[in-house]
Amino acid sequence: MKAILYVCHGTRVKEGEEQAKQFIERCKEEIDVSIQEVSFLELSSPTIEQGFRTCVEKGATEIVVIPILLLTAGHAKEDIPQELQQVQNKFPHINVKYGRPFGVHQKIIQLLLQRISETKKEIQSDARLLLVGRGSTDPDTKRDFSLIVEALKKESSFKDIDVCFLAATDPTFEEGLIKAKQSQNSQVFVVPYLLFTGVLMKGMQKTLKNYSDEQQEFILSNYLGYHPLLEEVLHERVYEQIVSDGRS
């Protein structure tokens, strides 16, 4: 019997954990698989092992594991597979298939533009966009953001688009803001490429208060969040694994 195990990142912020669980519950309703469980890589529960065991206890013989992550970086390529290997060693009779994170996707580009639109600010001709990622030492992160920038330039009126990161890699958020400040663009739209709420957003809000003035407005959009567009992307990631062996 087939099961799906969703692996979210996890957070110390209870609101972020609940948002993830609610997102998975909504997605489960549209997927015709009887066993579907949620788990977390760190900081929240149930853990990957607990979620895996629950699937097995419910009768699963094959488990499709879907990482609820925005990009393909260290968590997706190393941390989750390592956890799964340890668990699978305890259940060698279970067939495990590992799916893809959301990745660079046109629907996420649409969501970014929607978040900018939701600020209710008219975009000036010289407006600059600063895209803020969580950050990773994995080189694929910068590659993916380059693809996102290319897509945004095609889909929007922004001529100047920069990327910065909150941790682990350069340029830092502070460096991105300083560059934007020096650019003298009349508007700087700061767009967090983050999946859930947490201390990072609160820190960004506090930092930006020191940057806006009469000549230059810094505008913080909402983070991506567990939006219906992401539900559609998740459905794609699930079904590409379910049908990959020729069975529905």
Automatic annotation (TrEMBL):
It comes from the Bacteria. Keywords: Lyase, Metal-binding. Pfam families: CbiX. GO terms for molecular function: lyase activity; metal ion binding. The keyword Metal-binding applies. CDD domains: CbiX_SirB_C, CbiX_SirB_N. Gene3D superfamilies: 3.40.50.1400. The keyword Calcium does not apply. PANTHER family: SIROHYDROCHLORIN FERROCHELATASE, CHLOROPLASTIC. This is Sirohydrochlorin ferrochelatase.
